[in-house]
Amino acid sequence: MPIEDVAGAVKELIAAGKVKHFGLSEAGAKTIRRAHAVQPVTAVQSEYHLMWREPEKEVLPACEELGIGFVPYSPVNRGFLGGNLSEYTRFDSGSDNRKTLPRFTPEAMRANLAIVEALNRFGRTRGVTSAQVALAWLLAKQPWIVPIPGTTKLAHLEENLRTADLKLSAAEMSEIEGSVSKIEIVGDRYPAEQQKLVSPD
What we know:
43% of the residues lie in helices and 6% in strands. The protein has helices spanning 3-15, 29-38, 59-66, 106-124, 130-141, 154-162, 170-181, 192-195; strands at residues 23-25, 43-47, 69-73. Strands 1-2-3 form a 3-stranded parallel β-sheet, covered by helices on one side. It is globular, with a radius of gyration of 18 Å.
């Protein structure tokens, strides 16, 4: 269905007082612009973290230009950047979709632990965890970028909330990005069939 039709339907719902705001998920820059031309988009939700920076190419510039908020989901890469997962982790076969994702094969996790180690090195000198470094990096990117970390554990919620106290300088941001940029990410976000469902534009 053309995004203009979707935006038009939402516009009618907003005019009728049934909807307050219009948001998009996993939309490309062209789709965002086309939708926004019909009904202003309030926020775009997409995966974004230190292991997946694709939104920086086109989506984030479009959001900044159009005044749209950006909501990164999975900001610690489905828990991986928290440092509690390894090649020996076994995911629940019934409810955990990570077992189907290329990034979470034992081989990929073994290779990608280098990123967690880099975040731990940075965090150790500041008394913070790798997850807090990953979240603080996102919070420092732009004031209109608001990550939504998910958790089922109270301890992780408290850890995430304490990130608000960690303010990164421009030099620290460069240090984090410089160390991570040297590491090659192993594994795609989704299997090929699932990736086709994500908007390419």
